[in-house]
Amino acid sequence: MKTSRLKVLIPIFALVLCGAVVLFERYGVKYNPSKSTTIDLNKVYTEDVNPEKECMFLFSETEGDEYGQEVETVLEGMKIPFAKYSVEDTTFVEELNQYQTLVFAFQDWTSIDEDLPDIMEWVHAGGSILVTETPYLNEAFQGVSKELGIEGFRGSYVGISGVRFDRECMIGAKAGDVFYFDGEDAEKIEVTLDVELSESTQRYISSENGEYPLLWKNESGNGSVVMMNYSTIARAQRGFFATAYSLLKDACIYPIINGSAFYLDDFPSPVPGGDGAYIERDYGIDIAAFYSTVWWPTVLEWEKKYGIKHTGMIIEVYSDTVEAPFERNKLTTQFVTYGNMLLNSGGELGFHGYNHMPLCVKGTDDDMQFGDYKLWASAQDIQQACSELSQFAENLFPQSVMQVYVPPSNIMAQDGKEALLQACPEIRILASIYLPSEDAPEYLQEFEVEANGIIDTPRITSGSTIDDYQKITELGELNFHYVQSHFMHPDDALDVDRGAELGWKTLSGEFEKYLDWVYSSAPNIRNLTGSGMGLAVQQYDYISMERRMDGNTLNVKLGGFSDEAYFMLRNNGKEIVGTKGCTLEQINAEQYIVHATASELCVIFGE
Fold it and tell me: What is the pairing mode between strands 600-605 and 553-559?
């Protein structure tokens, strides 16, 4: 028995000793900032270009436009100039010849029954249609189904719970890979028609069991039709819409963010005292020792292995104080030690809060109260607390400019936001979340620059275990924005709701599987800090484009251009023989990352 206990204690002593050595070596280490520490977000951009509209967007006022708005968001993000028409206004077909592509964002084709012959004639002449929703099974749709690549109907609507890739058509998915919408055993969504495709139709994606085709392309005359045979309204689908649109032409180019960022919320912060049950179970040490000997060395290993640059989000105190005065935290050893280690490893610090109370005011934002959080006494109290945090951080890290803010629990009200920006004018970037949940009034964001110049850089995934919905969303984002944005907390290993019972060894192993998938799928994605992600989003959001295919050359003129920009190029056929004003890096058989270094660029294809 004594021998057995000794075998258990030896690795524990080794961990504690290792942590003590690390902290001894690092304590008091000064931060030596490089010239690139502060990202210049005040770049000068060229004037916008105003291209002619290439796409006609059709929606139904009768069906509502909620689904169409998601598709619009994708077209706007791809910088595809489009004009919007209602199918109830039957004169749209008279203007069809002005456009190269036609997008259907409705399901009942009865309203265009009489126009379908003219539409298909336009396709035969070289036009392209993208159908983004499963059509209603009626005579209007069935009458042109062969033109759409459908050989016959095996039944009516069927249920699906995920997608299987028939070929490698999206970054992050190889042929045979399966991605679930919300778990393998989740209730199936009955939004798919049971159809049989013709032999000449190119099938890209099927249902999770491979039985039902979900995305395909059919050549029709000199034009083409791309069909999405399932209808779901979710941000997870945006990358699938972008992929479908990019299949319409021989070549499609659109701007991307090209960035991967990782945030450590509540870090640095006061380390909770006491013992965590699962830490005690697995390591026999307290929480502080776990942070220094197990968790933090693991984070540093991820930085080395994947090139990650972490952004640490400071919490000054763990208290529920929401009314002035706000006392200064005098216990700063943990902050200085971990903060400088993070900075010296190429990372960055930002603000998370004086405490962990979301910026919501009592009497104004009572509907935003969540869990055990308290509402602030007033906007003035929020401002004072944020000022205290700013002064606290400046005293500890005088050479580090804090440009990024993450709302506690991703919750923030408008008055709180205004008070924050008044107290901390150095903040230029807000990093909340991209995906909504059902149990909290989150501050949802898009990747964009607000009218006031604040840059929104939402986080997409979180925690150590990435569920199916997060992963399929990240798959989509690699193909829409070419972006990865993740956050975790040091105390993930302490929270049962975040998988603590599994143990840190399992949690960290699961997270490494996610990291391996991201960096094998997108090996050239840029590792960025929070402010670096802000600059990347600003460069992406400001871009405007004019695309023109001249013979075998794709010419692109850029507006809103600074010194560089990134794009996704899908090549659906011809060999690429040259470029000007840019360089290409191939990701898979059809997709390339384009790095533009001039405001005019071209991609030259062979005969």
Answer: antiparallel
353: closest CA among 427, 414, 406?
406
- What three-state secondary structure class fits 238? helix
Question: Which pTM was predicted?
Answer: 0.93
DSSP state of 294: I
Contact predicate 313/268, CB 8 Å: no
In angstroms, the CA 336 to CA 446 distance is 33
Q: Which residues pair with 101 in a beta bridge?
A: 55, 128
pLDDT in tens, 63-101: 988 888 999 999 999 999 999 999 988 789 999 999 999
126 vs 249: CA distance, rounded Å: 10
Of 519, 26, 587, which is closest to residue 305 (Cα–Cα)? 519
| 101/88 Cα distance (integer angstroms) | 19
| pLDDT of residue 30 exceeding 80 | no
Q: Where are the alpha helices (DSSP H) in 127-184?
A: 139-143
DSSP H or E segment with residue 573: none
Paired with 595 in beta bridges are 566, 583
- Angle at which helix 296-306 crosses helix 2-26, to 10 degrees, equals 70
What 3-state class would DSSP assign to 587? coil
Segment 571-577 mean pLDDT:
91
From the list 279, 264, 380, 376, the residue with the least C-alpha distance to 313 is 264
- pLDDT score, position 161: 93
Q: If you compute the radius of gyration of the chain from its CA atoms, what whole number of angstroms results? A: 26
Amino acid code (one letter) for 35: K
CA 103 to each of CA 62, 137, 243, 520, 578: distance values in angstroms, whole numbers, following the listed order: 17, 19, 13, 33, 31
CA distance 449 to 142: 44
- Predicted local confidence at residue 370, as pLDDT: 84
List of residues 6+ apart from 556 with CB closer than 8 A: 253, 545, 546, 547, 548, 567, 596, 600, 601, 602, 603
- Which residue type occupies 131? V
What Cα–Cα distance (Å) separates residue 352 from each residue in 77, 219, 267, 554?
29, 52, 9, 45
Q: Is 81 exposed, middle or buried (0-12, 13-18, 19+ CB in 10 A)?
A: middle
**Residue 366's CB: how many other CB atoms inside 10 A?**
10
Residue partners of 515: CB distance under 8 A and separation at least 6: 302, 305, 306
DSSP string, 468-528: HHHHHHHHHHHHHT-EEEEEE-GGGGG-GGGTGGG-HHHHHHHHHHHHHHHHHHSTTPPB-
